[in-house]
Write the structure tokens for this entry.
Amino acid sequence: MTRAGVLGLQGDFAEHLHTLRAMGVDAVDVRRPQQLDEVDALIIPGGESTTIGKLAAQYGIIPKLLARVEEGMPVWGTCAGAIFIAKDVPGHPHPIAGLMDMTVERNVFGRQVDSFEADLAIAGIGPEPFHAVFIRAPRIASVGPGVTVLAALADGTIVAARQGRLLATSFHPELTDDQRLHQLFLSLAKG
Ligand code: GLN
């Protein structure tokens, strides 16, 4: 059985743990590098990417995370987590893991509309639209050749992408009851 970890340094890791446990998945909060050896997949939650990056560097998480990804461990970054796993984040003041070949821009939706919801068509989870919650969200500004775009807003802004076993979403699937993206992610750990 798959054991899923959620990076619990900062942000809404408790909501991801709640969703995973509601699905019957063995899920644990990961805070120390050694714990990465005890999980088959890792979610990096939303929150503040600056704080997550700073703490991840301080706790020595990043080198171990890179090694586990090299071994094939799936990683999913949601919102701040998507920022943390991007290779390129213009102007980010703290270390990031730099796993996924994409450029992510922070806080692009402006102050007045810094939170909104949208129904998205997402490749790989079936035809029903996914109700997505965006909170001071980033956008995926561009992706490299090995990255597949899974979802975009009506204006073309990329908000979900996949590269092999790496998944990034600008929004927060842990804040709604729809478990399809968590299911898609967990399926990557089995293959
Ligand atoms: N604005 C946050 C950041 O740039 C991300 C917001 C979120 O995760 N909901 O880190």
